[in-house]
Amino acid sequence: MSTFSAAALFQYGAGLRTLTMLFMASSQFFFAAWDEYYRGEFILPYVNGPNEGVLILAAIYLLSSLMGDYTSFWHVKETLPFIGGSFQRCDIALVLCSTSAIPVILTHVYGVYSYSTTPREQRKRMDTRTRDLHHAFSTATPYCVGVILACLWVRFSPEGVAAQHPRLTIWFIGILFSYAVAMIQVAHVCDGDLAPCRWPCILPVFIISCNCVLGLLSPDNQPPIHEPLLLVFVSTFALLSWLTMVIAVLRDISEALCLPVWTVPLKIQASCRSGKILAID
After folding, report:
1. For residues 281 and 41, what is the distance between their CA atoms, to the nearest angstrom?
2. Where does the sequence pass through the membrane (predicted)?
3. Which tens digits make up the pLDDT trace of 124-158?
4. Whose CA, among 16, 204, 224, 250, lies 20 to 30 Å from 64?
């Protein structure tokens, strides 16, 4: 939702700029969860998205609300010193925000690299699982590849699906990101292993990639499957996969802790009807 509001503020439209706004925030969150999984602890950098990033965005919203016509303000061209050329203010803001996200991501990458290359006996937290540096980067690679494929798809889509369904396109990519981060967090909490190759969200990415490539290679530049229809299908599949994962996690937690999640125990229902306070065992 923050991506939609920021893109609407800067009037980015349906294209790579809106997608960059999405990945600017999601990449920081992904690598933070990835860092937490491999190091066993979560250490926010001094400059981070949840604090300074939100503060900067809130300040931009506040300043824009004080303007008579904020859309024209952000589309005024400015000439940058030492660079030359004229750039719109909204593009300058996007570059600055994206550039500020890079050090945060690199901090997480360096943290995992430093932890993985430290001898086990010198680590602060003893880990029962063997995770080397190769395993760490192999689990981050699918997300990085997904970012590249998403940008290529939005840019070179034969039927311009992002322009026809901009919200659904962002929602679909966001669901895939949410699924990946949730799986990392579940693996961290449950002390399990990561296996991105088994995630069902890879299937929609594979289908869209093949359909897009075949469309670009065809003489009439038409893909075998109508892209808007395919987008609806893969979005539904991704959403169902995400819901299935959430339900499975809740069920497993309920069984492990012996706590009812989907129903209210009869003893508690009777206590509520009678108005009596039920003692906790």
Report:
1. 33
2. 12-34, 54-73, 93-115, 136-156, 168-187, 199-217, 229-250
3. 655 555 567 888 888 898 899 999 999 999 999 99
4. 16
